[in-house]
Amino acid sequence: MKKIIAIILAVVMLSSAVFATEINTKSMEDLKNYKIITGDPDGKLRLEDNITRAEALAIVCRTLSLVASEYADEFIDVTSDHWSAPYVSAALGAGIIDIDDTKKFNPDEFVTSDEIVKMFVCALGYKPFAEANGGYPMGYYSTATRYALFNNIPAMAMGKPAPREDVMIMAYSALDIPLMLQSGFDFKDNSASYIIADGKNGAELRTPRTMLNQ
Predict the structure, then answer these.
(1) pLDDT tens by residue, 61-73
(2) Which of 8, 14, 179, 214 could potentially form a cystine with 193 if both were Cys, beta carbons 3.0 to 4.6 Å apart?
């Protein structure tokens, strides 16, 4: 059987902070300083509330410094004047989300744990690894676990709405996860190779935090 994806990884154990079940003040201040989270019109974060797909995607895009200047009405339920349009367009272009046959994004529905895990994994470049290890959703959960995306978040119930606090913890964790980048493509085997930009093996360190600090 033809190999579809060849992944070249410098296998590393990524160190990660151990999170409590509540986001701490330092984490929240970092997210605010980077303008990843802003709160509601009253400035409240409503940590225990569920979060919509549009709100969650905006957090993912802000974590990766992604925003589009134009939107071409790719989804029938997200118009160009919708506040999330620049993020939806950027995420679509970056492969964080896809368009299905309905051509709907459902921006006001609550994002599920499965969906937000996939968004973050794709945003960090680990989609090939997740797809090669089971696909959606289990391959994405195992990838997120391996690379410390949601350590100690007990509320991650598969298929259920994700609490806002969990999404913020994931965003803070994602800040320091090295990106997985394509390093080559073998046209003979029709396979891509990838490398983790962790500052080792000749790869320059690239994380969402290093990008935001530029």
Answers:
(1) 999 999 887 787 8
(2) 8
